[in-house]
Every structure is written in C-alpha cells, then in structure tokens.
From TrEMBL, chain A:
Organism: Mangrovihabitans endophyticus
Similarity-based family: Belongs to the binding-protein-dependent transport system permease family.
Domain of life: Bacteria
Keywords from the UniProt entry: Membrane, Transmembrane, Transmembrane helix, Transport
Name of the protein in question: Sugar ABC transporter permease
Keyword Membrane attributed: yes
Automatic annotation (TrEMBL), chain B:
Protein name per the record: Sugar ABC transporter permease
Source organism of this protein record: Mangrovihabitans endophyticus
InterPro entries in the record: BP-dep_ABC_trans_perm, MetI-like, MetI-like_sf
Keyword Transmembrane among record annotations: yes
Segments traversing the membrane: 12-33, 70-94, 106-127, 139-162, 183-206, 245-264
Family according to the record: Belongs to the binding-protein-dependent transport system permease family.
Keywords per UniProt: Cell membrane, Membrane, Transmembrane, Transmembrane helix, Transport
From TrEMBL, chain C:
Domain ABC transporter: 4-235
An example Gene Ontology biological process: carbohydrate transport
Organism: Mangrovihabitans endophyticus
CDD domains membership: ABC_MalK_N
InterPro entries hit by this protein: AAA+_ATPase (IPR003593), ABC_transporter-like_ATP-bd (IPR003439), ABC_transporter-like_CS (IPR017871), ABC_transpr_MalK-like (IPR015855), ABC_transpr_MalK/UgpC-like (IPR047641), Mo/tungstate-bd_C_term_dom (IPR008995), NA-bd_OB-fold (IPR012340), OB_MalK-like (IPR040582)
UniProt keyword terms in alphabetical order: ATP-binding, Cell membrane, Membrane, Nucleotide-binding, Translocase, Transport
GO CC annotation: ATP-binding cassette (ABC) transporter complex, substrate-binding subunit-containing
A GO molecular-function descriptor: ATP hydrolysis activity
Name of this protein: ABC transporter ATP-binding protein
NCBIfam families: PRK11650.1 (NF008653)
C-alpha cells in the first residue's frame, strides 16, 4: 500500500517554476509560499529595530573599546595618542592595583553569591510555602529588589557611620567603613540585602516546578524534611539554581554602586568596575580604561562559558521557541 | 517544608519566619525614612526612631534646582527609555515567540549576551563616542544605553507572556479572515496587555536604578539623574550636612518603587519568574 | 460551497522529515469527509495545509476549482473549528461570532442578523453577552461552531473539535455536528483520532498512517473490507482479532485448530502468491456460542478455556487466550503502539469474541465456540495486504 513517491518529479517542477518569475502567483523560491515569505519579512521587520539598537550600542562600542585599548590615549595628553599594540595590557596585568581590585571583586562575588544562594533558598521556601501572609512576604521581599541601589547604599553607609548610625553604635570600635575588612563585609552585606530577593524569586520559580505529589510520596516513603529537600527538591530545581547562580555571579562581578557610595574604593576596596571607572573619569586615560573594559568583558565571558559548559546551565530561552 | 502540617503551631512558625523576612527587607528603608525626618540637631544621635520630627529636609531639597532638575531628568529618561524599550521589545518578542524566520536564534543569543554584558565595559567606549557625537550629557545619551540593556529583559519577559497566549487563537483569527497585523492588533495585543504592563514596570525599575551609566555619561545638571545627584550632594556647599537632604531625596525616589511593589506585587513576581527561568 | 481537491500534496519540514507524502484526495461539494489515524499520521498537517496555516511543499490544492496553494488563510474563505476552540477570551460570545464578519467589513445590521441566526441554531442566544471563560465545555464548543458557520464559508475544517468534551457530551455533540452539516450542506473536512467518531460521522473516511493514505471509503466498506492489516486493526472496537496462521496442504493452521481450505480461499492464496505464514483476522462478532448456532457445520467450532466474561446486557464479550502466540507483523506493532503499547505475553494469543446475551459461557470453564469462516481475512504479514480482497472488485479506493 505504499503510495508512490512524488518527490523527484515535483522538485524538478518546483525548480523550473522558480525561474518563471513573471507569473505573480508563482513562488520565487521553491517551498516558500506567499504566507511564508510574508512571515519572514514580518519577523525581520519586527526584530530589526531591537537588534539594531542592541548591536549599535554594544557590539560596536566593544570593538571600538578593543581598538582604543591598543592605543596610548590619555585625554590629558591627547597629542601623545599612539598605537602601542598590547602594551596597555602589559601595564594593567602587571599592576598591583588591578590584581587587588580583581581579588576584591572575586571575593565579593563568591561570598555574596554563596550567602545569597542559602538565604535566597530559605526566602524562596518561605515565599512559596508560608501558610499566612504570603502576599505580605512577597511584597516586602520585592522592596530590596526594586529600590535604587544608591539609596540602599546610603542607608547602609549612614547606618555604619559613627554616631549617626544605629548599627555603628552597636559596635564600640571606631568607624567600620574605614577599615578594609569591615568595609568589605559591609559592601557584601549591602549586596546580599539588595539581591537576595531576586535570587529567591528565581529559585521560587524552580520550586514551583517540584510536584507536590512527589514530596508527599517522599514523606510516605519515610523521607525526613531534610531528605525531602536534598533528595527530591534540589535535583528537580537544579536547572533553576544554575540559572540563578549564573545571573547573580555575573551581576555581582559588576559590583559598582555599593562600593562607590560606601567607601568610594578607599582602603583597597575597589572592584574592577570601580578602577576602570576611575581610570576613565578621574584619570581620563581612555587607553588604560578601555583595556580594563576589555579584560572585564573577557572575565565575564569566561565565567559565563564555565557555567554553560561545565555545569550545563541551560540559557533561558534557548531550549524553547515553541510554535505550539 | 511542613507538607501536611497546617495546624496553629505551623502558622506560628511561619508567622515568625514571615516577620523575619519583613524586618530584614524593611529596616534599611525605614532607616532612611527616619533619617530624612530627623531635625538637624538630632541627626547624629544614632536613634533608629527620630526624637524630633520635621519635614524641613523635604522642603529643602524641593527648593534646590539640583534635586528638582535631577528628578525631572530621572522621570523623563526612565519613562522615554521604558516606552521605547517596551515597544521594540514587544515587536521582537512577538516575532520570536510567534514567527518563523532565519536569524531568530541569533537574536535570542545576542540578547542573552547583552543581559550578561558587564556595563562597565561599555563605559569607556560610550564615553568617547558620545563626546564625539555630542550625545554626552544629554537625555538621548542615557536613553540609548538604557534601551539596550532593558531590551533583553523586555524580550524575555514578553516572549514568556506571548507564549502563554494559545497559538490557536492566532490561527483562528487568520481563518476568520484577519491578516497577520489584524490578528496581532485585535486578538493578541489585548491579551498581551498585562504582560506588556508588567514588563514596563520591570524596565522602568531598571532605568530608574541605574547609576554607572548616569554618572559616567553625564557631567552637569542638564541630564544628571537622581542617584547621581545624590552622590553629588555629599560635600556640596549649600548643605552643611547633606545626610538629611540625601535621605529625603532617597525617600522621594523610593516612593515610585514602593508604589509599584505594593500595587503590582503579583505581576512583578510573575514577570521576573517567567522571563528568567524557562530552562 | 465548493469541492476540495488535493493533488499529490506533500509536506516536508526544513529538518528533512516529511509529514505528508503526496496524497491525492477529492472531496465533493457538500461532502463530510473524516481524516482519521493515530497521532503523527499527518492528518492535522493535511488539514492545516487545506486551511493555509501550513505551507504546501509540493503538489496542488484546489478549492472550488481554483489553485489556492499560495493564498493566505483569509483569502480561502474557509472556516475552522479548533480542538481548543480558540475562542478569543477578551471578547463576548457575540463578539467572537461577529469577529469574522467584522473583518469582512459587513454591515452592522447584517452582522447582528447572522450572529442571531447562528446563535439560535446552536441554542446560544441567552449566552451571547457572556465571556468564554464563563461557559461550559459544551457551550464553548458550540460558540466555536457558531463562529465557523456565521460566515457561510466554502468549507468547514474541524480539528478534533470534540476531543476536549467528556464522553457523554461528545456523543451528544457528535449527532449535533452531523445534523448541522447535513442541514447546511457545507463541504466539511473533519480530523479525529477516534475511529468511533470517524465511523459515525462521515460520508467518507480517510484512514492515514505515516503521512500516507491507507484507504478511503464509506464507513461500512472500511469495516467490512479493510485493504490492509492497519485499517483492519484501526477501525472497529473492540478491534479485530489477529492470529498467526500457517498454510498447509489442505488446511489453514491457526491457534484454534485447523481450518479446511475451501475453494475460494485456495484460489485467493494462489492468486496472491501468498507466503505460508499469514495473519488471520476476524472480528469479535463473527464468533458465537456453539450451543446457540443452528448450522454449526457451516463454520468452524473449537473449544477453549474462558478467561473472562463481560456482560454488556445486549451481548457478552468473552475473552479467551489460545495457545500459539500472537500474530507478528510490522503493522500490528504500529497499532499496538497507538493503543498504548500494551505488553502481551508472547506465548499466547488473546481472542475477543462477542456472543449473544443468552450464552451461558462462564469464566474459568471450557467453552465451545463457533466461528464464521466466511468472515475471516487473511493478511500478508510483511506487506500487510489483505489477500482475501484480491479476486473481488476493489472495495473503496486503495491508496496507490
């Protein structure tokens, strides 16, 4: 009962049809009907503005940035502009300040993301499972997410300022923001406060994917609350956790606002973003500033790559695109 | 994780946990409010609750051009950026979730890259480009990067919303005689409106929040936004001690956020979770 | 009103898979045609191509004599009812039904009149100002139908329109759909995976599998004279029994015993150049309790232990398991996969019979069962072809 295949003949016909363009209803290309071409055109048309803006404001500048990083270019001495290949990279990479800032950035990133993961998970569980006041908890948790970082940073700064702050008075000794260890702790605290809710929301989306029946089955099977959490919930939530970690890690690596307000980078508390900014805006050194920009970009790219390749983080939006 | 426990003890336990969360979230905000209401004399007493109340700080900042101008800039820039980003994002998200065309995967990839992009890497080149093109220290000079970084957010959130609208509805509209554009306008757009609105809130919060671009790409009151103006209050000559003024200004720019959160909590949560985690 | 002609219509996807392989089908004006088959057989793709929602890779589609391959759905003047109903949730019932007319720029009074009429036919008049969310499943289904009929299109396309309804409502709506179609006389193409729906609704049924037409014909022909194993097994519920059979000197050996080969069968086997191993198919109603048959000599009688008796009131389903293992053929595996891939023990074959209600057969006992040998079908296990149809005039149009 096999039906005779019509493919070869039809294909030939299609091709010859392709040549006859004078007939308006004939298709210019085989297998592309009017509707399909319309759809393509519309797709491109709709995406073009967004794509253009994104490319114009990121791709071009980052290439331009790379070009600048190969030059000696100090706005204080514009006449000394000169192409120096990778000399700027040598300068930056052999500079102690850069590596200190890099270390500070890594420290802030690792500690804050680690703490946020734990706190965020706890917060997600509370938001997801609380029996009372769910709306209240979710609303409150959104406030740190929504608040302007600079505002929050000022709040923490004044809280720790001697005599002004309610927290500074709790600790007897001096000004915590002027000592490196305590200042870094405060920066990390401010970061954690601000972004734990975001982490928690992402994790909550993962929690929602854990079927209630699965937890019930596990408890019937004799699993304790902790075992249900580690053996049932965590494995199901793994993709959500990895995505949340990826986003927060990259975000924490860009830390700038909190440091700017809390310490302004004093006492070796600068992050890489801070010193890149300072080189540019205070030092007016475009060459070095651009070099740092490129290096930060590379660092971020490496972090993202590690997450995606090593941990198999599924990039959001990559697996789907369902037409029905 | 009391799966089966809903008794009064469990409620008490959850009540306590809720209280911890609420306190954790609100203390820094209440602290700024408290500072803004303190009189100059009691500003440095270190008390969490003011002993003497005053609205002087608010009166003061609204009299200074520095703050009022920055507020106008913040509002204007954030609104315009939001509007453009949401319109462009809606178009792109619709195409991504509904149409089939070559280059779609690339666009999704590019927006993902931008979502992860370190903004500081753009500061130096944009600083130079904007100086050369005359965009430096203007509204468009900030609006452009804001749109760029808001677009991935808008595209993800909106695609997630569009995907919730049954594909059949659009097919049905086509069968009923609608063109693609009519199907969008008459069927999809009304259904997508809540999603678009949610996205607008998220994008607005993002633009409202930015500090790095605002401080790097502006130099005068002409286009400085409030977060930047705040940081310039420090040591500014017209206030002896800027703490009260900064706090008052901080409270003012926190008000819209609080309002959004209070009225649209459900939507913001839905928007953030649907857009970000789908893998 | 128009006829619909599919001329070697093929659908391939960019990834290289082909969903529909050059099918030919002519649907007459006013005809009610059912496309039926297991999921993935290409029936929905075919419907979408007729609708214009999917491109036709090659071949030609003509509606009312005109080639419409390149026309957008809106220019084909056909209406569609979706499985999900696809009611616009932001519009009331009235607005939903008026939507196609508004798009056609019809005058307001005209729209009101047409919507009113359609609502009356479908008993939706008192629900006109409600939103779809406030309607029951059956009402939503009727709104979807209403939206299709208001514009009096050339044809209706229905994509499993009843499968979201519960069993009872589905039967009820089935008759309503059928009555409505007869009343309007509009050409209708109806897709379903449910063979009962296919049998009860259509003027003609098109059985599809893997993107190919299997058989096209009226329901009775499909039931009585299936061209191959797949159609035989797909149509009918409970489905046809398939047993292994071996051709011997003067007999056909099957798990129930040896059937004498009569002249007709012998001639058929020779003509078809049949292999020695065959699949024997026989429907459950072609068995009877031997005690209740007058001329037992005409058929074949055998004894087997009864597994289970299900009394339906009007008759009894009696299940046996007979020695000799189930029949093996590629087609049967497809059918089993479609039915849910039930794992059957491989050393015994199950036999379903439908006996008169008067039968006294009991579970756990031996029973003497009569089988109507005239009704057996013999299939070639490798090609699936029904050998028993050979000599006679082709019944229905076998594909290719």
């Amino acid at each position: 009962m096999s039906v005779s295949s019509t493919t070869p003949a039809t294909t030939a016909e299609e091709l010859s049809e392709g040549g006859r363009r004078e007939l308006p209803q004939k298709r210019a290309k085989a297998a592309l009907s009017e509707g399909k071409r319309q759809e393509r055109r519309l797709g491109w048309l709709l995406c073009a503005p967004a794509a253009l803006v994104m490319v114009a404001v990121t791709a071009y500048p980052i290439l331009y940035s790379f070009w600048l990083s190969l030059q000696r270019y100090d706005l204080k001495f514009p006449s000394e502009r000169e192409f120096v290949w990778f000399a700027n990279y040598a300068t930056v990479l052999s500079n102690g300040y850069w590596w200190t800032a890099f270390g500070v950035t890594l420290l802030i990133t690792v500690v804050s993301v680690a703490v946020e993961l734990v706190l965020g998970m706890a917060l997600a569980l509370v938001m997801h499972r609380t029996l009372i006041g769910r709306g209240l908890v979710r609303t409150s948790a959104l406030i740190p997410y929504g608040i302007v970082t600079v505002v929050a940073a000022f709040s923490w700064r004044y809280a720790w300022t001697p005599s002004t702050g309610y927290l500074a008075n709790l600790l007897s000794d001096g000004a915590p923001l002027t000592e490196r260890a305590s200042a870094l702790s405060i920066i990390i605290l401010a970061e954690i406060w601000k972004t734990t809710p975001f982490m928690a929301l992402l994790l909550m989306a993962g929690l929602a994917l854990v079927p209630e029946d699965l937890l019930k089955a596990a408890s019937m099977d004799g699993a304790s609350a902790w075992q249900r959490f580690t053996r049932v919930m965590l494995p199901v939530m793994k993709p959500a956790i990895l995505v949340a970690l990826l986003f927060r890690t990259l975000d924490a690596f860009r830390v700038f606002d909190n440091i700017y307000v809390l310490t302004n980078g004093a006492n070796e508390t600068s992050s890489v973003s801070m010193i890149a900014y300072n080189n540019l805006m205070k030092g007016l050194n475009l060459g070095i500033g651009s070099t740092m920009s490129v290096l930060i970009f590379l660092a971020v790219a490496i972090i993202a790559f590690v997450f995606v390749k090593l941990f198999g983080t599924a990039a959001p939006g990559s697996s789907d695109e369902g037409r029905r | 994780m009391a799966t089966l426990d809903t008794g009064p003890r469990a409620k008490l336990k959850w009540g306590l946990l809720d209280a911890v969360v609420v306190v954790f979230a609100l203390i820094p905000v209440l602290w700024v409010v408290s500072l803004s209401l303190k009189t100059t004399a009691t500003l440095t007493d270190g008390n969490f609750i003011p002993r003497e109340w005053t609205l002087d700080n608010y009166r003061l900042i609204f009299q200074t051009d520095q703050f009022v101008r920055a507020l106008i800039n913040s509002i204007g820039i954030a609104l315009i950026s939001t509007l453009i980003a949401v319109v462009l994002g809606t178009m792109a998200a619709y195409a991504i979730s509904r149409l089939d065309f070559p280059g779609k995967a690339l666009l999704v990839g590019v927006s993902l890259l931008i979502a992860m992009f370190p903004q500081v890497s753009l500061v130096s080149p944009l600083f130079n480009i904007e100086r050369q093109t005359g965009l430096f220290d203007t509204w468009p000079g900030l609006i452009l990067p804001y749109i760029t970084f808001a677009l991935p957010l808008a595209i993800y959130t909106l695609s997630a919303f569009f995907k919730q609208i049954p594909w059949d509805l659009e097919k049905a509209a086509k069968m009923d005689g609608a063109t693609q554009a009519e199907a969008f306008r008459k069927v999809i757009a009304p259904l997508a409106a809540p999603g678009v609105f949610t996205t607008a809130i998220l994008v607005f919060i993002f633009c409202w929040n930015d500090f790095l671009f605002a401080i790097s790409l502006t130099s005068t009151e002409q286009s400085r936004t409030v977060p930047v103006a705040l940081s310039f209050f420090t040591g500014a000559s017209q206030f002896e001690d800027p703490t009260g003024a900064i706090s008052a200004a901080a409270v003012v720019i926190t008000i819209p956020i609080i309002l959004f959160v209070l009225f649209f909590q459900k939507r913001i949560v839905a928007g953030l979770t649907s857009g970000a985690v789908k893998g | 009103m128009a006829d619909i002609v599919l001329d070697k219509v093929t659908k391939s996807f960019p990834d290289g898979t082909t969903a529909v392989h050059g099918i030919d089908l002519e649907i007459a004006d006013g005809e009610f045609v059912i496309l039926v088959g297991p999921s993935g057989c290409g029936k929905s793709t075919t419907l979408n191509m007729i609708a214009g929602l999917e491109d036709i890779t090659s071949g030609e589609l003509r509606i009312g004599g005109q080639r419409v391959n390149d026309r957008a759905p809106k220019d084909r003047d056909i209406a569609m009812v979706f499985q999900s109903y696809a009611l616009y949730p932001n519009m009331t019932v009235r607005e939903n039904m008026a939507f196609p007319l508004k798009l056609a720029k019809m005058a307001k009074e005209e729209i009101d009149r047409k919507v009113g009429e359609a609502a009356k036919v479908l008993e939706l008049t008192e629900h006109l100002d409600r939103k779809p969310a406030n309607l029951s499943g059956g009402q939503r289904q009727r709104v979807a139908m209403g939206r299709a009929i208001v514009r009096s299109p050339k044809a209706f396309l229905m994509d499993e329109p009843l499968s979201n309804l519960d069993a009872k409502l589905r039967v009820q709506m089935r008759t309503q759909v059928s009555r409505l179609q007869k009343q309007l006389g509009t050409t209708t193409v109806y897709v379903t995976h449910d063979q009962t729906e296919a049998m009860t609704l259509g003027d003609r049924v098109v059985v599809m599998r893997g993107g190919h037409l299997q058989q096209v014909g009226d329901p009775q022909t499909l039931y009585d004279r299936p061209v191959n194993l797949f159609v035989a097994g797909f149509i009918g519920s409970p489905s046809m029994n398939f047993l292994p059979a071996t051709v011997e000197e003067n007999a056909l050996r099957c798990p129930m015993g040896e059937l004498a080969l009569d002249d007709r069968l012998r001639r058929l086997l020779t003509a078809a150049d049949a292999p020695r191993q065959l699949v024997l198919g026989i429907r459950p109603e072609h068995f009877e309790d031997a005690a209740l048959v007058d001329q037992a000599g005409k058929g074949f009688t055998f004894t087997a232990p009864v597994d289970l008796v299900e009394s339906m009131g009007s008759d009894k389903y009696v299940y046996f398991s007979v020695e000799g293992g189930p029949a093996v053929a590629a087609d049967l595996e497809d059918l089993a996969a479609d039915a849910g891939g039930a794992d059957v023990p491989h050393d015994r074959a199950n036999l379903v019979t439908r006996l008169s209600a008067e039968s006294r057969v009991r579970g756990g006992q031996e029973a003497r069962i009569w089988m109507n040998v005239d009704k057996i079908h013999l299939f070639d296990p490798s090609s699936g072809r029904n050998i028993t149809l050979q000599e006679e005039e082709p019944a229905g149009v076998a594909a290719s």
